[in-house]
Amino acid sequence: MSLFVSEGNPHGIKVLAAANIWAENVKTQWLQQHEKIVPFMSQPRLPALQLDNGNYLFLSNAICRYFFMSAGNDLCDLINQWLEWESVELQPALSAALYAHVVQGKKKEDTIVAIHELLSYLDHCLAEKSTPYLVNDKLSVADIVVWGSVYPLIVDHSSLPDKFSSLKYWFKNISQLEQCQKVVTLLLKNQGSSIFKTHLQKQPAPTIPSGKPVCSEPEGEETPAHIISEEDILAAANSWSKGLVDTMQPKQRPHPILPVEGEKNVLITSALPYVNNVPHLGNIIGSVLSADVFARYCRLRNWNTLYICGTDEYGTATETKAMEEGLTPQQICDKYNAVHTAIYQWFNISFDFFGRTTTQQQTMIAQDIFHRLLDREFLLTDTVEQLRCETCQRFLADRFVEGTCPFCNYEEARGDQCDKCGKLINAVELKKPQCKVCKQSPVIKSSKHLFLDLPKLEKRLEKWLEQTFSSGDWTANGRLITRSWIRDGLKPRCITRDLKWGTPVPLDGFRDKVFYVWFDAPIGYISITANYTDQWEKWWKNPEQVQLYNFMAKDNVPFHSVIFPSCLLGAENNYTLVNHLIATEYLNYEDGKFSKSRGVGVFGDMAKDTGIPADIWRFYLLYVRPEGQDSGFSWNDLMLKNNSELLNNLGNFVNRAGMFVQKFFNGCVPEMELLLEDKKLLAQVAAELQQYHQLLEKVRIRDALRCILNISRHGNQYIQVNEPWKCIKGNQQDQKRAGTVTGLAVNMAALLSVMLQPYMPTISNIIQEQLLMPQESNVLTSDFRCYIQCGHRIGNVSPLFQKLENDQIESLRKRFGGGQLNNDGAEPQVKVEPKVSASQEAPVQKDNKVVNQQRVKELMEEVEKQGYHVRDLKSKKAEKSTIDGEVQKLLALKKELALAEGKSPDPPTQKGKKKK
């Protein structure tokens, strides 16, 4: 491995520290700031890590994670949450503060004040722990990443205010690690923060973003605010005064929806789910739900939008499923297409058309593309060795073979690709191959097949990719995976299979074969559109007027960025190619993976039975959407986000705003006379709305959701400060003030109802029904305007969300926990213990200490209950002395729990960590 860093780059601190602690064989190379590691990149990206297989990591956090995991460490959910918080919230704010201090010459004390709330949050989390580390009781990558971000600005722990005692203690301990001291000496050269000036001067001036920590945050804390100028305040006040009179009306959408010349025409597809697999939560967020949010947003912008999806129905998997259930392949497709349809309807996915691939249009279009490729000599014929299962009497499709990867020895590699090392595999190369159906060892047999000549198409593909990368929005993983394919050199790709269930190959000598599913399936986007409208070519042969967005999980990238575009380019028929490829990472379940066979995780057909509304599922999946790295579904986190973000934040604000109108003003929106502080609030809301637009236009769906929650936080704070329930009891001036605060608050609730529509459409509709919002207001403007005017009568207001209780969540966790795999991949063994009463429960021995399991269970419940009590006090802004007293009770319970578990109640002594 080679680590490339440049002098004066503040991001070098964390990666070099992580390398010193966890990476033994990494070679560090120093470059100039302007030097590129990869020639075709548009700009330098340092630091960078070149892996032994030739791939690169360019994100500093990803590099640190790699070092940490390569040393044999595991990433738990809490570590991932800290890394996400550092990346989304802390790092942007610190970058802005460092720039202001080093380049603009502002006092360090002032720049620390600018990030005060983030540091307060960090200090608070450390104060509640009984160890000097962020996670558990030992140094983790979360500590190094957060420390490495904070260090360039702070440099010395004495720079931190005394009230941040826990943060100072943690910062000092990490800074004193031998490996960290070496990095500081090497990079800072006794010059302090000024060493970063040259690097920062070449960067655009950053601004401190708004945002709330994404870890299990204490409630009730203020959110870091945008830096609002006088010009921002004036602009916001002017926009507000215009109202909605001159805004566009919601666009009517008569079917069929077709592109319109001169308008923005958006064609959206989400990866076609395979028909006989019931989608789990990870599948849903990876494609259809993410695409749905963007489609709904596009419609709010009045863009001419068509959202297409359907079930992928051909292939061996369908044949095998039919055999298992005693049905024909067509009957299996009919059965499971209905299952998929019902799941997506319950999740409120707003397809314009949901179709399927087993249609005449699919056959016609796929065969036409095939003939055009054949006529232009982009197809090859070759005899290939395939695995054939003699027990099942069939050639095995790649995904129905499993074995040991020939490259990394991963024991569950598929016949086409290894999920661990990412390399493509020919099924016959697998070690110890097995048929997934009968578990027997297949034999190698020869068969004649057709191949797509990708090497012949490579140059035109590269030219198209270069143009698309420069003009379109592709996620980083989409670009990286695609470039890795190009870098390794394209090879001919087989497009036929020895099956019966599929699109027939219309060529003599191959009429007993069908098209391979990954040649055939992406063509389903086109054929499904053709089933929607006979004018489908206006979408699919119109690249000049149509912007195509593909949504998928990262494992589908090569087929959408290399194989499918190559087919369409080779067909030479002016097909619309993807402009924006949006790929997610993976969503894991708790500490493991989703598994239907082991009953692990929530699948789409089960979500309804949990009693949790679809909009809550949508919200949480979008909140943890794996945009830049894998993320995890957690029942505790779902409960926390529902009870804090939805119930106590968003729902609380919307309900209060409406109730004040009902209670104080007989249900009519009062007059509003805006003061300077009101106009500042308008500017803050306008800034969040602007960021919401910017993020969603770049399809950063998870980050845009934070803007909605930030607006409701601003609203809650505004109500708390102005106390309209007191003003309404005062003199005439006070009552006017209560009217202004209430009128502005209920208009913020109206804005939130529109911004929420892509994320929580049912809740959005409920808010609009409660406020009796006019139809013309259901459109998303670029600025914050007065949605409901003085005199407007609202309807009945009621709470939007219900609290999720711990007992309910624990019951669901057990229900969907199934049989998780042990670290060695084996199913857990079930031990049957003799039953005893709670009072007689036998203690167990642990490290020569007696552990009473019943007492441990009781203490765990008490710790959890006290934790919620502390968070509740904070959300209600109780007296600091009261909160401090309850925190001490919590810490005492945690120590007692540690003793009951046979652990030491005291924090371990800080030690520098040696290289492994």
From TrEMBL:
Residues 897-916 are annotated as: Disordered. It comes from Hymenochirus boettgeri. Its main location: cytoplasm. It is found in: Cytoplasm. One of its GO terms (cellular component) is cytosol. CDD domains: Anticodon_Ia_Met, GST_C_MetRS_N, MetRS_core. Pfam families: Anticodon_3, GST_C_3, GST_N_5, tRNA-synt_1g, WHEP-TRS. Residues 855-911 form the WHEP-TRS domain. One of its GO terms (biological process) is methionyl-tRNA aminoacylation. GO terms for molecular function: ATP binding; methionine-tRNA ligase activity; RNA binding. Residues 72-208 form the GST C-terminal domain. This is Methionine--tRNA ligase, cytoplasmic. Its EC number is 6.1.1.10. It catalyses: tRNA(Met) + L-methionine + ATP = L-methionyl-tRNA(Met) + AMP + diphosphate. InterPro entries: aa-tRNA-synth_I_CS (IPR001412), Anticodon_Met (IPR041872), Glutathione-S-Trfase_C-like (IPR010987), Glutathione-S-Trfase_C_sf (IPR036282), GST_C (IPR004046), MARS_N (IPR041598), Met-tRNA_ligase_1 (IPR023458), Met-tRNA_synth (IPR014758). Belongs to the class-I aminoacyl-tRNA synthetase family. Keywords: Aminoacyl-tRNA synthetase, ATP-binding, Cytoplasm, Ligase, Nucleotide-binding, Protein biosynthesis, RNA-binding.
